[in-house]
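Human:
Focus on the backbone:
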Amino acid sequence: MIGLACAALRFAAAQPAAPDQAPPPSRSGGEHSPATAAEIWDGNHDGIYTCDEWKAYLGRLFDRADSNHDGQLTPAEFEAVRRAGSALADADFGYFDENQDGKITRREFVEKPNEFILQYDKNGDCRVTPDELKATGTDQKRPGGRGKRS
C-alpha cells in the first residue's frame, strides 16, 4: 500500500499540537475510531480532516526534520519524521523521494496525498467529515500517512 494523494495543516492557538506531541484526547471517549490518529493533524480540532490540514502538518514535520535548513531531507533527517510520534512513524523514505535522488524536497514531501483522506473522502471535496466516517462502518482502521514500510 504505497502511494498518497492530498495533504496539509495550520497553526492553532492557536496552534495545533506539535508533531512530537500526543494528539488531543479522542472525542469518542477513548475508543479507537478511524479518526483517532488523524486528530494530531486536525489543525482546528473540529473533527473534519482536510487536505490543507494534512499538508500543513507535513510542512511542520518537514521544517523540524530539515536540520540544516537546505530545503531537503536526507535519509538521516527523515528519521526525525519517523521519531516525531507522527502519523508517518512507518513511512518509507523512497516513497517520498519521487525522483530517487537520495533526498526529499519540500514539494515531494508536502504534496503527497493522505491515504486516510483518499479512503474516506467519499464526495471528493478533500475533507473527511464525521458523516463520511460513520458511513464506512470500519472503526478499526486508523488514519495516518501513506508510504508505510512493508
